[in-house]
Structure formats: structure tokens, C-alpha cells
Design goal:
Largest sheet: 5 strands, mixed
Strand content: under 5%
Number of strands: 5
Oligomer: single chain
Helix content: 55-70%
Strand order of the largest sheet: 2-1-3-5-4
Shape: globular
Number of helices: 27
Length: 625
């Protein structure tokens, strides 16, 4: 793995830390002062670090009698460490695109994470010493530092970027579900408020504040998971460490291209509760107050994405079958999930009546057009891992506690897979909960000490690495619209304002956030239009009196867009002119012709000049002052 911080008898932990610091400093100096390439700089730093810790491998220190010199083992580990750190440096600079100095720190911290993961022998003993608990805490801390450095620099996904804009507007007094036409209930907006407070307190951008807020949430949840695992006497040290590493991967690596999506937030908030239920056969317990807190957090998570309630439902079924009693489900955590969930429903019902009276009917009429359909949604490689994981786990025999835990994990995986397929959207980030718990169940099987499950340790570990590698291969979130459209907004000068006419949220966000433009529409995208157009194109809707509700929706959408256009007077208008627009089912549609049916729009849009065409979008600029 890495030679950094290795417990060599000559230099000890202090020498290992000095070697790690030397590696980072020498790499940074070589890359900046001497303009060496990233991989070359990393290699120079690594050689210096290796020289620092090498004496103990060739000459035992005083007081280390009986130690065997291991120069061959040292060289093998040094080569493996060089390969690892070089791979991380290459991936961080080429795939993440971070500047060299930040890449050096991320690479050094990443190596430290992997080194800390092996500083304690992963034996089958159950006791956890203070030092081992400290190692786990440092592992979480190092992972959090790496994640904050990486995600603080990466582009935020379009949905989270929209919620930053919408939440700012809401805090400024704009009403949800009238001035802000958001299809989802208000919880996503509520959970974005702390991110904006955090950004304001740090004096940074909303996007960076949001990324750091999510990173800290992940780190806090990992500390909760560490505490839960520590208190379970039936868990071996190997099981604790394997599950903790799986949780680190599930929260920080798997969501690489969907960091901060509602699915990610759901996994963050529900993970401790689900582990509490899954690992109860191995002695994982919580106090009554703690269980209520974990259940309450999980209720908030599931309220974000109620589609995924299939997972806890199947988990509950598995528990009831294993315990041969439905009364096993009457726990403080489960009661909290139900109570808080119903409480949130009451808040929405009484506090945001427009959501049920306005948004829900509109969504039922039009939102079904979004997505790729059931069959096309199955074309996701990660779905192949679910049956593979099931086959690997079911190879084990016996009815021990490890077996019960594995079955409960599989119930969650199956539930998240069913939820994804029922949505039939085909959006890859909706697979995030499934992918995260695939990593966890495979990690559990890889470190299980049960004789029945030992034979699947290697295939489980290999499958877990494949799932994580797939997430890494996808790379971070990217959006080509930003590069294509940003120059036109920059040309406007100070205080630009933007309107994007498209059915894709990604057409406008994070473009608006990154350019500092003012968004002039109540919609994140034209989500009302495709469904209404598709319904009106049916043969049954050709008569004037037919499908009046869909005509009314299309007219209302035009009226709202025109109102926002006249009020906001955007300096830049970007129009989707793709012949086959997403979610229109191949039906030709022209936004400017549709809006031009309103005389007020036609009169004002006459003052806009065509200034460019990018990625099958036309860009228009207001010419009058």
C-alpha cells in the first residue's frame, strides 16, 4: 500500500508522519518552483519519503532485538506505494482537474487514509482499544479533509445548483409554488438553508458553501456510524473497519458525479438508522434517545425521496420473518420514522397548501413525460451488480447472525433497485442508494468471520472494488453548457440576467450560479410543457373540446413564462432549438413560436438580437437599455 506512517521499528509513527509531510512539501516545491510535471514531482517527493523511513528496514534500531530486517519487503511496499500515489495524482489532476498544489494535498491525504486503514491488524478479536478507535476517527477526519478539498473545487450538479437559487429566492420572500414553481415538496429547500448560512458565514460562494456543508454532514454521520459499531461487542475489529471503510466509500466516493443530490442526502440521513436495524443481530444498539434521533433523521431522509420507502419496508419484512414476529418492528427508531414522517406531511399540508392544490395536479397531468421509460432505465451497468451481489451472498450457508445481517442488507439493495425501476426515469443518480448499499453489503461479506461466509470474502471484496471503480470511472459531474454559454453572459458586463427556455434543468444550472447571473424565471426548466404537448398530440385530443385540461396547462405555462419575461427583462435569452427535444417524444416544438402567440411577448422580444448559436441552442441579447 503506502509506506507513509508505517510502524517501522526504527522511525516509528513520528518518522512516518515526517515522511508524509516531506512527500507533500517536496512534491509541491518540485511542481511549483521547478515546474516539474505532476507525476514527476510526486515521484521525487515519494523517493525522499522512502529515504526517511528506509534505515529501519536495513539496520534495526537500538532496543529492537529480534526484529528481522526486511529490505525486500520494504522495496516491494515502496514500489506499491509509489504506484498508488502516482495513480491518485494522475486521477486528481486529469480527471478531477484540480490545480497542482491542491492535487498534491489531496493525493497525500488520500494515501494517509489508506495507510490509516491498515495501521491496525484486522484480526478477529472483538475488543477495540483507544488507539484503534483513534485510528478510525483519524480515518474519518482524513477522508473528510480529502473530500472537502476535492468537492470544494468541483462543479456542483444542476439540481443542487437550482435549489441554491430557489432557496435564496424563498429566503428573500418569494413564495414557493407560486413565485417558485418547484415540482418537489419543500424539504429540499429546507435542507439547503443551512448551506446558505454556512456560505454566508465563510464569505464564500453558495456552491462551495453547499459542498462543504454536505462534506461535514457526511463526516458527522461517519462518526455516528463509528460510535454505533464500537459499542457492538459481537462485531470483530475486522468487521468494524470493513464496514467503516464501506461507509466512507458510500458517502464520499460513490456520489462522485451526484454529490449533494437528494438521493445522496437521503443516504446520508438514513445510513445510521439502517445500519442500526441491519446490524442488531451483531449487537449494535442505541439508547432510546439515540434510536429516536436516528429514526427522526431517517424520516427526513425518506421524506426527501418517498419512492425509496420500498427499501425500509422490505427490511422490516426481513426482520419480521427472521424474528417470526411483527412486534419486532415496534422499536423507538421505527416509531420515530413514522411519527416524524407524518409530522412533515402535516407541515406541508397546512404550511404549503399550494403544493397539494396546485403543483400535485399539474404534476399528475404533465410530469409523467419525464424519463426514459422502464426498459431503457434498465440499461445501467450498476444494476448488473445487484444480482451478482445476491448470488455471492447466497453462496454462504447457515443461519448465523452474519447470515441474518447479509440478508437484511440484500433486502435494502432489492428495495432500492425496485424503487429505481418503478420511477422509470433512467437518471443514473437515482441509482446512488442502490450503489451505496451494494458497497456496504459486499464490504460486510468480505470481512465477515463466519465460516459459512469466508469462502465469499475474495469475490465480495472484488465486487465491492468494481462498484467503487465504476463510480470513479464516471468521474465528477460536468456540464458542457457552462463552457458553451458562459462567454455570452460574460460579454454583458455587470449584473447579467438570464432566461433559458428548455426542458432540461442542466441547460440553465449550474450556468447561472457560476456566472453570477440573476435567474428571471419561476421555473428551473419548462417541466409543464413536454407533457402537455405530448398529450395534445394524441389522436384523441384533436377535437377542440377534447383534452381541455392539457390545453389549459399549456396556456398557463405560457402565461407564467411571459409574465416572468416581462418582469425580469433578461439580458440574455437562451433557447433550446434541438429538433428532437428531450421528453417531447420526437414531437417538433418551437419555444419562440409558442411564446410569440402572446402579443406582449412578441412586442418585447423584438428588441432582442440573435448573437450566437451553441450546441443547438440560440442565444439572444437585449439591445435596448
Amino acid at each position: 500500500m503506502s509506506i507513509h506512517a508505517a510502524p517501522w521499528w526504527h522511525v516509528g509513527r513520528l518518522g512516518g508522519r515526517i515522511a508524509t509531510i516531506a512527500h507533500v512539501l517536496v512534491s509541491a516545491i518540485a511542481g511549483t518552483a521547478f515546474a516539474r510535471a505532476p507525476l514527476e514531482s510526486n515521484a521525487l517527493g515519494f523517493v525522499v519519503a522512502a529515504l526517511i523511513v528506509s534505515p529501519g528496514h536495513f539496520r534495526p534500531a537500538a532496543g529492537c532485538a529480534g526484529r528481522v530486517r526486511q529490505p525486500g519487503l520494504f522495496l516491494a511496499r515502496a514500489l506499491a506505494g509509489l504506484l498508488l500515489s502516482s495513480s491518485i495524482m494522475w486521477w486528481v489532476t486529469s480527471r478531477l482537474g484540480l490545480p497542482f498544489l491542491q492535487a498534491t494535498v489531496v493525493a497525500g491525504a488520500s494515501v494517509s487514509v489508506l495507510t490509516l486503514a491498515r495501521t491496525t491488524s484486522l484480526t478477529d478479536r472483538n475488543s477495540v482499544s483507544g488507539r484503534e478507535y483513534s485510528v478510525d476517527a483519524r480515518l474519518i477526519g482524513a477522508a473528510t479533509v480529502v473530500a472537502s478539498l476535492a468537492y470544494g473545487q468541483l462543479m456542483l450538479n444542476h439540481d443542487s445548483s437550482w435549489y441554491l437559487i430557489a432557496t435564496r429566492q424563498w429566503l428573500g420572500g418569494v413564495e414557493l409554488y407560486s413565485g417558485i414553481m418547484e415540482i418537489n415538496p419543500p424539504l429540499a429547500v429546507f435542507l439547503t438553508v443551512p448551506a446558505l448560512w454556512f456560505a454566508d458565514a465563510l464569505g464564500t460562494t453558495d456552491s462551495i458553501g453547499f459542498a462543504l456543508y454536505i462534506v461535514l454532514l457526511c463526516g458527522g454521520v461517519l462518526l455516528v456510524v463509528q460510535h454505533l459499531l464500537r459499542d457492538a461487542d459481537a462485531l470483530t475489529l475486522r468487521s468494524r473497519r470493513g464496514l467503516l471503510l464501506g461507509a466512507v466509500a458510500a458517502l464520499f466516493v460513490v456520489p462522485l458525479d451526484a454529490f449533494g443530490q437528494r438521493e445522496h442526502l437521503m443516504v446520508i440521513l438514513t445510513l445510521p438508522y439502517l445500519l442500526l436495524v441491519v446490524l442488531s443481530p451483531k449487537g449494535v444498539r442505541a439508547t432510546t434517545v439515540g434510536a429516536i434521533a436516528l429514526g427522526s433523521a431517517a424520516a427526513i431522509g425518506f421524506a426527501l425521496k418517498p419512492h425509496y420507502l420500498t427499501a425500509p419496508a422490505l427490511l422490516g419484512l426481513a426482520v419480521a420473518v427472521q424474528q417470526r414476529s411483527a412486534r419486532a418492528l415496534l422499536t423507538p427508531a421505527n416509531v420515530a420514522v413514522v411519527t416524524v414522517g407524518l409530522g412533515y406531511l402535516a407541515i406541508v399540508w397546512f404550511g404549503f397548501p399550494d403544493y397539494f392544490s396546485r403543483i400535485v395536479p399539474l404534476g399528475l397531468l404533465t410530469y409523467g413525460s419525464f424519463g426514459s421509460g422502464f426498459l431503457r432505465s434498465l440499461a445501467q451497468p450498476v444494476l448488473l451488480f445487484a444480482p451478482v451481489a445476491t448470488a455471492i451472498v447466497l453462496r454462504g450457508t447457515g443461519n448465523g447472525a452474519e447470515r441474518q445481517v447479509a440478508i437484511r442488507f440484500l433486502a435494502i439493495v432489492l428495495g432500492f433497485a425496485v424503487s429505481y425501476m418503478v420511477q422509470a426515469k433512467g437518471w443514473h443518480y437515482q441509482l446512488l442508494p442502490l450503489t451505496a448499499f451494494l458497497v456496504l453489503v459486499l464490504a460486510w461479506d468480505a470481512v465477515s468471520t463466519a465460516a459459512a461466509l469466508r469462502k465469499i470474502a475474495i469475490p465480495s471484496a472484488a465486487a465491492a472494488l468494481l462498484v467503487v471503480s465504476y463510480s470513479l470511472a464516471r468521474g465528477p459531474y460536468g456540464n458542457r453548457n457552462v463552457e458553451a454559454f458562459a462567454p455570452f453572459i460574460a460579454d454583458v458586463g455587470a449584473a447579467p440576467s438570464v432566461l433559458v427556455l428548455s426542458s432540461n434543468v442542466s441547460a440553465a444550472f449550474p450556468l447561472v450560479n457560476l456566472t453570477g447571473a440573476r435567474w428571471t424565471s419561476r421555473f428551473p426548466a419548462q417541466w409543464l410543457v413536454p407533457g402537455a404537448v405530448r398529450m395534445l398530440a394524441r389522436p384523441a385530443c384533436q377535437a377542440p373540446a377534447d383534452c381541455e385540461s392539457h390545453r389549459a396547462v399549456l396556456d398557463a405555462a405560457r402565461r407564467m413564462v411571459v409574465e416572468d419575461f416581462l418582469t425580469g427583462r433578461p439580458t440574455i435569452v437562451i433557447v433550446d432549438e434541438r429538433p428532437s427535444k428531450p421528453y417531447f417524444d420526437g414531437i417538433p416544438f418551437d419555444y419562440l413560436t409558442w411564446l410569440g402567440e402572446d402579443p406582449a411577448f412578441a412586442a418585447v422580444f423584438g428588441s432582442y438580437a440573435f448573437v450566437g448559436h451553441r450546441r443547438q441552442y440560440s442565444i439572444w441579447r437585449r439591445e435596448d437599455p
